[in-house]
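ugh ok fine here u go
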Amino acid sequence: MEVFDFLFKGIHCVLSDSSGIKADPNYEEAKNGNYFAAKQLVNNLCKEDRIRKLVAAYPDAVVVPIATKGNGHNQIPVAYADKLGESGMEFNHDILINKKANHTQKSEIERLISQNEFDGKVEKGRKYVIVDDVVTNGGSINGLRHYIEDIGGSVVAASTLSAGKGSTEHAPSKKTIDAVYSKHGEAINDYLKSIGIEDGVESLTNREANLLRSKNP
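structure:
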């Protein structure tokens, strides 16, 4: 799979699906906060040619992992960011999730599009590449993208070790957006704003928008 930036609405992916990452013997420990297990997993799975291609495409970008403050959290994105750092990219350690989205007692749609809260220093005018271990719905990547861009940074790409089916198509097509409005009308944007999605349907990921095509909030 090639390197994609947000202009092409895609996500760079090292593996074709999530089966390989979950089968790695270090997976459970890495997900539960063991950095050394995460480092071994990344070394086992990363394809060096795709790493080189990503670094060559964005040599002046800063890599930022989807990482959470505190101990006991998934270390795979951090280890993947370190891998890119070893290959020549600058690594931002400051931007972190300070409050994970609470999915308790929320509907399927609210769970899908509820957002993490981030903090940390963003340099205005700098280019950023977001990295995560797996992309499914794309909400975490989308949330961090908006955090960085609202402050003045520019997210030029996102990369993951693996992806769910159809998940590398990050932004919804015009056809999907039109279908959401056809089903719900403009009132859907009022609903999205009520749960913290200020920029409406157009700011959702492809998977999130497709859910709204088929379900009522």
